[in-house]
Write a structure and sequence with these properties.
The protein is mainly α.
Length: 578
Amino acid sequence: MADTENKIKTLGEALDLVEGADLPSFQLRDMKSAIKRIAEMAGVLPGTVKAEAPVLRAMIASIRPAAHGISAKTWLNLRSRFRAALRIAGIIDCRTDGSALKDPAWASLIKAIAADKRLSCGLASFANFCSLEAIKPPQVDDAVLQQFHLWLENRTLCLKPKDVVRSIPRLWNEASEQIEFWPRTKLAALSFKAPQRRRKWCDLAASFQADGETYRAMRANPDVFDERANAPRRPLAATTLQQQRQHLRLAASVLIESGMPVEEIKSLADLIEPERFKTILRHYHERAEGRPNAFAICLAQTLLQVGKYHVGLSADELSQLKRIAGKLPSVPLELTAKNKAFLRQFESDELKAKLFFLPDQLQAKAAKALEKSRIDFVTAQMAIAIDIQLAIALRPQNLIALNWRRHFLEPDGPRGRLLLHIPAAEMKSRREEFTTEVPDDVARRLRWYRRHVLPAIGADPTGDLFITRNGTRKSQETLTDQIIKTIELYLGVDMSPHQFRHLAGSSYLEENPEDTETARALLGHAWSKTTRVYVGSSSRRASRAYNRFVFEQREALKLKRKRQRTRKPKKGSTPCAS
């Protein structure tokens, strides 16, 4: 194997080696086809891809089968044949399945956890590896775990080796406590997070922390009777307060890294001395290589607010800081390149149709499971979540918080209209409430979910819509991840819940380019400028409006010319005498 590994440098060479393997012709055909098809889907030539497990793993992870019309089953077959070809070429090692169960030293341990699927599945690959490496259970330690990690990374196509390794210490230690004859060696928890470069909030001076908390308390609940000219009037949202705390921490960290002792940064006022303010902004400006940087601008705005509302700078002092911040290059008020590329994908009517009918497909799958007395809970939730986002395009934080009792109204009874009402206090702007009539199709699906799915798991049909199996509300991160994975599986597109809002505003304005106000109300924006940023400036949208104008003008002129021709006398005719 070692000699073969040294010879094989590219996937193209692996393809040549497979062609000469002593195997039945149909197996060779399938393996060669798998290599060529996967390379084609990844947009590369086999001869240009390094024959290394980490490179091939990244290549496979970049492929979205649904985007190529490949079903989940076909994709599994392709990957299986691809791995078989790589084993023949010596790029990855042979499967280790069942090795531990055949090893007397490991068999008793594996049988002891067989009834616990979580433990048996989580520890199977590690136990198989140890068995093949002749590592006995009492010899397992942190060094063996690191060895296993290197093997997963460099000699397998395991898609998430870090996740596999990260879970093993917890499962091993749990088995050690539950099973009497399990080795008593404890494995240390692993973390693959990069070390934090900036100072933690607790590492800053105590007086600075106290001043920062005083500022945040004031911004969270401003005093309506505060008579200062610069007193804040509107409370900030919790997310904004958290963001500003991060800005203050990072600003102080930059000054400390520039050589200032931590003891000298005693209060927020120490951050906004003009030269220090420049140092902070210069750091992030250079880090962005001089390009427009939204983070640097937001950090500058936080420091300006500190100076205005908390420190009490004079008008001249505040103007000086604004002049400094104004030297940062402004960020264009338009969509990011990522969101522009995302919207271009939906120029395809076929892809748009797949997305629009995806809730039907998901509901049918979940309903079929219910008929067999199974509960495909996540699929049912994805059906209503995607349907709501297509029809109403809520912010993710409003989507996850939906509660039937608090947000939905049935003014005409349980078979009539369904209204969605979100109070102003729950909206991002906190200025306007949001009320809309839920389309009939979406309302039927929501009622089906409440009538059939929630009771099947013992959940309250009048409570939160998006819950876990134990009845607690799902986290926004979990729901977001599930929506992304579902759309990727069925459409082959990377689409977050928030991007439904870009798609909704852009799609509406493509057909109604002059009606920005409706798009603003649909997205719940306080300002139309925000809506224009969300939907971007579309040359296609502008050209369509202009083409409509031109062809209307053409038709009008065509009719006018036709009338003029009918009035002209025919050739050779004698004009009437006057």
